[in-house]
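your task:
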Amino acid sequence: MQSLDDTTGLPRFNMLFELGLFVGCRHFSSDGEQNSKDFLVLDSAPQRFRDSLSDFAGYDIACHHGSPGETVQLLRDWLANSRAQITYGGVKLQADFRAFEADLPTLATDFAPHPDQITYSDLCHLIRTWII
C-alpha cells in the first residue's frame, strides 16, 4: 500500500495521518462547517487499506484499480452524489481534460516558458478561461 521514500527508505504516511486529522476534526468538532465536510478515499486495490488502516472499518473506500479513467469516473460520481446535481459524465470530463492538455502549451506562453513552470494560481486562471 505504502511506497518507500527514495531518500530514507522509510514509508511515508502523510496521507493516512492527514486523513486521521480530517476524520477526527469532522467527528469531534463543534463547528458546523467541520461536521458537514465529506470525503472520498481511493485506493488502487480493493480492501488493501485493511492491512494498514484497520481502524477505518465502516468507511467506504473506492477502488480505482490503478486506472486514471476509473479514478475520474469515481470522483465524478462522488461529486455528483455529494453535490446533488447532474454533471458531465466521466468520459466527457476525460476528453475535455485531454483537449485542455493539448491546448495548454499555447495557452501557457504568456505565463511561463514551459507549461510545467506555471504557478498553481495561473493554471487555475487558464483552466477557468479555457472552460468559458
User: Anything to note?
Assistant: Helices lie at 14-28, 32-35, 68-83, 90-107, 120-131. DSSP finds five helices and two strands in the chain.
